[in-house]
From TrEMBL:
It comes from the Bacteria. One of its GO terms (molecular function) is DNA binding. This is Putative DNA-binding protein with PD1-like motif. PROSITE patterns: PPC. The lineage of its organism: Bacteria, Bacillati, Actinomycetota, Actinomycetes, Micrococcales. Keywords: DNA-binding. It holds the Pfam family PCC.
Length: 152
């Protein structure tokens, strides 16, 4: 376990518009407002589709990182994210839980790979002044890139 006291800066309200790519629009919001480190405590809306790491059936080994993805169409839900520094700009790490409208709101949850907004999606973006955030491969997490505080 490790941790750091967070110092917050601005709170920015963002609305993703129909047709926006979810991750692309979140990155654009970070760039527009100069947010290099932060988190998203509120992410809620409706999506034409959202692709998550996950599967329609249970995996053979539940301890392994999921090698598959699932696309949920015409869904609504909520999520949360962190924003870390990447070599090419902000890296948004978003997890969401969404229910498919055409499947009695059957829910799927996981790491978001991509998505397209269907109806305006409400986002609250909180800037972190410190610590700086990065994602680095973590051998203890089977090589997955996990959150680090490089200056701590």
């Amino acid at each position: 376990m490790f941790g750091s006291e967070a110092v917050t800066g601005r709170t920015i309200l963002v609305v993703l518009e129909p047709g926006d790519g979810v991750l692309e629009a979140l990155v654009q919001a970070c760039l527009r407002f100069g947010v290099t480190d932060g988190y998203v405590p509120v992410f809620l809306g409706a999506f034409r589709e959202l692709t998550l790491i996950g599967a329609g059936e249970p995996p053979a080994d539940e301890d392994e990182p999921m090698p598959e993805s699932i696309t949920v169409r015409n869904c609504e839900g909520q999520g949360t994210a962190t924003v870390a520094r990447g070599s090419d700009g902000p890296l948004v790490h978003l997890h969401a839980s969404v229910g498919a409208k055409g499947d009695s709101a059957r829910a799927h949850s996981g790491h978001v790979l991509s998505g397209v907004v269907q109806y305006p999606t409400e986002v609250v973006l909180v800037e972190l002044l410190s610590p700086a955030l990065e994602r680095q491969p973590n051998a203890r997490a089977r090589g997955l890139a996990t959150l680090t505080f490089p200056n701590e």
